Amino acid sequence: MTEITAPKSPISAEQFADEIREQLKYTQGVTEQQATDADVYVAAASAVRRHLMDAWMQTQQDMINGDTKAVGYLSAEFLMGKQLSNALLNVGLTEQFEEAVKNLGHDPQNVIDAEYEPGLGNGGLGRLAACFIDSLASLGVPAFGYGIQYKYGIFKQEFDEEGKQVETPDYWLENEEPWGHIDYGRSQRVNFGGEVVEENGKRVWKPSWAVRAVPVDYMVPGYKSGRVNTLRLWTSKSYDEFDLLTFNKSEYLDAVRPQVVAENISKILYPEDSTPQGKALRLEQQYFFVSASIHDAIRVFYPGQDKPDLTTFPQKINFQLNDTHPVIGIPELMRVLIDEYGYDWDTAWSITSKTFNYTCHTLLPEALEVWSADLIGALLPRHLEIIKKINDQFVKELAAQGVDKKQIERMRIYTDGKDASVRMAYLATYGGSHVNGVAELHSQLLKDVTLKDFSDAYPDKFTNVTNGVTPRRFVRMANPRMSDLITEGLGTDAWMSDLEKLQGLVPLADDAEFVKKFAEVKQANKRAFVDFAKRKYGFEINADTMFNTMVKRLHEYKRQSLKILAVISTYADIKSGKLDVDSIVPRTVFFGAKSAPGYAMAKETIQLINNVSRVVNNDPATKGKLSVYFPWNYNIELAENLIPATDLDEQISQAGKEASGTGNMKFALNGALTVGTLDGANVEIRERVGAENFFLFGMTVDEVDALYAADYDHGGSRRYYEEDPRLKQAIDMVADGTFSEGDKKTYENLVNDWLTHDYFMTLADFGAYMDIQDEIESTYRDPMKWARMAVLNVANSGYFSSDRSIEDYLERIWHTGPLA
Ligand SMILES: *Cc1c(COP(=O)(O)O)cnc(C)c1O
What we know:
Belongs to the glycogen phosphorylase family. It comes from Bifidobacterium tsurumiense. The strands form 5 sheets. Strands 1, 2, 5, 6, 9, 10, 11, 12, 16 and 17 form a 10-stranded mixed beta sheet that branches. The chain has a 6-stranded parallel beta sheet with strand order 20-19-18-21-22-23, with helices on both faces. It is built from 34 helices and 23 strands. α25 links the parallel β21 and β22. The chain starts with 12 loop residues before the first helix and ends in a 6-residue tail after the last helix. By secondary structure, the chain is of the alpha/beta class. Helix content is 48%, strand content 13%. The protein binds pyridoxal-5'-phosphate. The site of pyridoxal-5'-phosphate has 13 residues, from α6, α24 and α25.
């Protein structure tokens, strides 16, 4: 076997500098003297890309010629983060880069910073996809990521004078983007609309419009694996660049309209997280990338074949459906097999159901996509027929199994009647081989509640794969100081590709010297963040305070409102003298969160946090003891800077609502302690790091259910307000205008909701949350104890590597492995 390496051969810093010079001159046309940091970034990225080329081609060849099944990760979102330092790390060119760039007279950090972060995802789901393709490449497993190259990623968040969120468009392709390679030769036609007619006893789709899906390929270099996979993101183009007839009549705008409509499909990422809107354009996007990807995979694995034997398709590639967004792929593959390749229904079904698997990412019923049958029928009439037929077959199968009528009605994929609709999660569960949740608790609740009927009928389909994060980006790149200390402590850097090796740090938790160094690293990270925040946001932060962080999408179930009410309560107690300000642990509270633009309650919460920040930070009574900062536009870059600097991490969602969380894993792996509920992967984190090294509070899933049964969300919350003076005071201050310059209307919706509805039980958990703070503070007062606990968090969190998640997928779901 030939050894595959990327870079092809080791190079020196001088050689790397020469390659950058060459790019600058012959591709970009700038002299070394003229070159800006941004120019050098583009040149360095292009040079790195060239180093990946041989391994990329070899990986593709080995994938096509060998018999190792590939993975197609279908995801509407890939939240990649900046690429340059990741690529350098994975191919082992970091040092050469730094020296080369210095020799060219630039600061390496400025060159890295010149890259614009692509925001092709909302939050956890998109970041998971990015971690997974990194791990697949690092493990040497042949894989494609398939998605959409949105022209506009997730909006940029700013705050106005009143502290309200303002969204501005994220035109990330404004400057040169050196990573994506557009490949017109691999375009696919994607049809829409029209009708289905009967021709020679066959159903034939006569679409009324079509777009051209053009792939933009991104290389995905594995860490030290020598393998480079592909992230193929589709962009939409028009076929009829100009309708000349119309153009001749000098109706120019009409002539270009089809082009505008076609290019709309990949124009914008929907900014909803957890609560999709049933918009036609979104369904168009879903079908667009899934149809193109399926046809692409057939072309990749059966090159040049007019009549391929597609019964072998499930041995060539398995598609993983990342949530319900790509589920239209199931009827699409059926259609392709039957209509385009002439297979009979049963053969097509056998192929399709072996090809797909489904990852469910939620427990919130409103997050499970349901499409109106009218919409699907108008856009994809042939698919609606196929879905109905799948439903008929499904209903028959259930009846034959003896499933009772009522249960069958509940389980229908296609519901008849006036508001006929298609339930995508049910289609995915029936149409694929496996269904997985993303943490133990979540998978259990899927089986017990959300998909119970399905779990009863098809128990063997259900499995769990607990999420993970890539240690390359979220430990090594984000936290070089701690990484060096770990490598020193373990005597090897092998932990970066085998994160369970962090276990070797356990004995070092009792080594005072090591624990002290660990605490020093944290302090250095905090100082570095203070500099970053000063530069980027103009904040003046005191590094000698506890850094207490809550960063994630803004959603009621995540309960940023619980955190801010606690801050308000502490503030009130300081003001009233109930708390001696000199007796408390000085704290800096950080929030980072975007809200969906149409989510009123979430936006009001953002406004409240900003105004609490304004009031508290400017009050001499709390100066230096309690401050609140809300750096805007939470993204991967902010995560990479803030997480390693955090002492205390907030994972305080209502039990039973967070499917997994991955932020929690990033924090534990960076030596932050967690205050959290028994929800999502918190449960497993706590089990591994030890209950004594985790600040647990709040209701369990069973207690939450009991409160719902007692009608909590219909007026039950008010009792907590009336019975807990701390809570009453905090809510009263929100209501009385303390954080809105006297205006009592600003937070009316929030206050009303807390007192009458409070579906996510912020009020019911408030007391427990306040009570745990004493334990947190007394622990923090003993710095060596805190640092020791932090070391044990790191040492025992190796399980939460996305490499381990991928190994679980390989074993439980995909049944494949690395290329030979
Ligand atoms: C990890 C990550 C998330 C997910 O955070 P959760 O706390 O798991 O919701 C969201 N956004 C960014 C930028 C991230 O890096």
